[in-house]
Amino acid sequence: MLRSLVLLVALSAAMPAPPLVIGAFSTMTAGGSVSGWEPLRLGDAPSSTYSLVRDGNAVVVRGQATRSASGLVRRIRVDLAQHPTLAWRWKVDGVLPRGNVARRDGDDYPARIYVTFDYPTSRLSFGDRVKYRALQALGYRNIPTRALNYIWANRADETRIVRNPFTDWVQMVPVESGPANVGRWRTARRDVAADYRAAFGEAPPAITGIAIMTDADNTRGTVTAYYGDITME
């Protein structure tokens, strides 16, 4: 009996945790609200629009940006030791011709998955702590001091992890690049812990939020994207 109990405990410990559902958009109602998600504003740019629509047999989120930048965020804490892999589906109607991952005036993407981490401000350099306090004084809240942006890059040659042109607190991770797969649903899976180490050179803290974002404020363009269900596995 004791041996069986020990074996059962060992097997339970070895089993992976069940998937953590971040965005169950397919269970929602087209035309309804995106339950459990809240607006994410970045600066003073006009807001992009997000709606639940039916695409084929599934309900998904459609993001539309016209010279705008905002997202939808799910505030959730995720232990990467339990759920290291981020999985999702997405589709874009086009890329932004003026988009460029290396330039501030090109820092727009038809689709991105924005992941923020619990990185304490006490670990920032003195200069970065001053910058953080200045941003707070200007009214910015929930400032990510470490974040990964999984992006649908605009150009086919944008394939490497690079710092965001505005801040090295955010690193850009191209998952799709260029127009080759425009109009097609694509499935992505990323080892977030490995990507964090590659981007920041250290072990990752816990995730504090996951957002979807379609933006075109810097390029002054127009773009549409679709987001399917999102899970951590």
Q: What would your notes on this structure say?
A:
There is one protein chain. The protein is mainly beta and about 230 residues long. It has a single domain (about 20-230), classed as Jelly Rolls (Sandwich), CATH 2.60.120. It has 3 helices and 13 strands, in the order αβββββββαββββαββ. It has helices at about 1-15, 125-135, 190-200; strands spanning about 20-25, 40, 50-55, 60-65, 70-80, 85-90, 110-115, 145-155, 160-165, 170-175, 185-190, 205-215, 220-230. The chain has a 7-stranded mixed β-sheet, with helices on one face. A hairpin with a 6-residue loop joins strand 9 (about 160-165) and strand 10. It is globular, with a radius of gyration of 19 Å. The two termini are about 35 Å apart. About 35% of the residues are buried. The model is unreliable at about 5-15 (pLDDT under 50).
Q: What's the average pLDDT?
A: 91
| Number of E-type strands | 13
- Rounded to an integer in angstroms, the radius of gyration calculated over CA atoms is 19 Å
**Strand order across the biggest sheet?**
2-5-12-7-8-10-9
Series of H and E elements? HEEEEEEEHEEEEHEE
The CATH topology corresponds to: Jelly Rolls
Helix content: 10-25%
How many helices? Answer: 3
Shape: globular
Task: Tell me which CATH architecture applies here.
Answer: Sandwich
Unreliably modeled segments = 6-13
- CATH structural class: Mainly Beta
Total individual domains: 1
Q: Could you give the distance between the termini? A: 33 Å
What do we call the CATH homologous superfamily? Galactose-binding domain-like
Class inferred from helices and paired strands: mainly beta
SS strand fraction = 35-45%
| Biggest sheet record | 7 strands, mixed
